[in-house]
Amino acid sequence: MITGRCLCGAVRYESPGPGLFSIVCHCRDCQRASGSGGVPVLGVPRVSFASVGPIKQVRTKGGSGHAAVRNICIDCGSLLFGTPESAPELVTIYAGSLDDSATFLPDAALFVSQRPPWAALALPLAEHQRMPDDE
Ligand SMILES: [Zn+2]
Ligand SMILES: [Zn+2]
């Protein structure tokens, strides 16, 4: 079972998996949303994902033209997971919220054209200039 929570503990989530992909997204929206150089994302099936606790949804227009929806704890502001309208079968868990950080090991980096030099990871990652489907 994949589990995680926000900083204050008011929101918890779980997924039986499987983990479908593990990537780091360096798009500017992810940088601004996280205050960091990118967001590490673990994709899981939406049908079996469940969360409890008070969530606020922040919607921005994604690169696909559909809304990128970020789910945030109302109480502490932690970014927890995405529910993109462009991929309604997926939940994209923000890996920093996982209970077991070993659940996540990225194999690819997206939007490296927008990645700041200080945010490159010392891992062998497949690097995509944008989304893999857009190249
Ligand atoms: Zn919280
Ligand atoms: Zn992104």
Write a structural description.
It is built from one helix and eleven strands. The longest helix has 7 residues, at 28-34. It has one helix at 28-34; strands at 2-5, 12-15, 21-25, 39-45, 50-52, 55-61, 67-73, 79-82, 90-94, 108-110, 126-127. It has a single domain (2-114), classed as glutathione-dependent formaldehyde- activating enzyme (gfa), CATH 3.90.1590. The radius of gyration is 14 Å and the shape is globular. It is mostly beta strands and 135 residues long. The mean pLDDT is 94. Strands 6-7-8-9-4-3-10-11 form an eight-stranded mixed β-sheet. Strands 1-2-5 form a three-stranded antiparallel β-sheet, with no helix packed on it. The relative contact order is 0.24. The site of one zinc ion has 5 residues, from α1.
Please describe the topology of this protein.
Elements: E1 2-5, E2 12-15, E3 21-25, H1 28-34, E4 39-45, E5 50-52, E6 55-61, E7 67-73, E8 79-82, E9 90-94, E10 108-110, E11 126-127
Parallel strand pairs: 3-10, 10-11
Antiparallel strand pairs: 1-2, 2-5, 3-4, 4-9, 6-7, 7-8, 8-9
Bound molecules: zinc ion (2 copies).
